[in-house]
Amino acid sequence: MTTRSGAARRERWSNVRVQVCDGCCCGTARKHPGVDHAAIRERIDAAAVSAGGRSRVVGCVGACERSNVVIVRPAGISPDRVWVGGVLDDEIVDQLCDWIAADAVTPAPAAVAARVFSNGSTPPSVSVALSGLRS
Fold first, then answer.
1. How far is 51 from 102, CA to CA, in rounded Å?
2. What's the pTM?
3. Interstrand relation of 54-58 and 17-21 (parallel, antiparallel or unpaired)
4. Which one of 68, 73, 76, 85 is most buried, by most CB atoms within 10 A?
């Protein structure tokens, strides 16, 4: 069995990573008719790739009341994740993509920070997600 060295773990966390929920509610026209879910996923993926990171579509993350949910793990050595709900309109998608393209290491833009939530087991990264709310 091979184990990852400390350097390999740091490398794994060195770029932004994004998970886009596409489960029972998120990403469906049934719950959000008129929203181009495929275009949102493509824009988020392009932003992650432009930062040297990656995105992936995942099944239901259990936060259906906040759909569409995107989980961002900022670049760096921290495994913290920022849960963002209600990723449905151009304003939030634009700001989220700009933040992701910048490795999500700066404070989140106001529209993104306003939609950050805790999934119940993993608190949002307060220093990254909520500092965007301060003036």
1. 6
2. 0.79
3. parallel
4. 68
Report how far residue 132's alpha carbon sits from residue 72's, in angstroms, rounded to the nearest whole number. Answer: 15
User: Domain limits of the chain?
Assistant: 12-133
> pLDDT tens digits for 30-88?
899 999 999 999 999 999 999 999 999 999 999 999 999 999 999 886 668 899 999 99
Amino acid, res. 112: V
Describe the strand order of the beta sheet including 17-21 as a list of residue ranges.
54-58, 17-21, 70-73, 82-84, 116-117
| Phi, then psi, of 60 in degrees rounded to 5 | -55, 130
Q: What DSSP character marks residue 126? A: H
- If you write DSSP's letter for every residue of 31-90 in order, what string do you get? TSTT--HHHHHHHHHHHHHHTT-EEEEES--S-GGG-S-EEEE-SSS----EEE----SH
DSSP state of 17: E
Level-2 CATH architecture, domain 12-133: 3-Layer(aba) Sandwich (3.40)
Report, in angstroms and rounded to the nearest whole number, the Rg of the chain calculated over CA atoms. Answer: 15
Element (H, E) at 94: helix 90-101
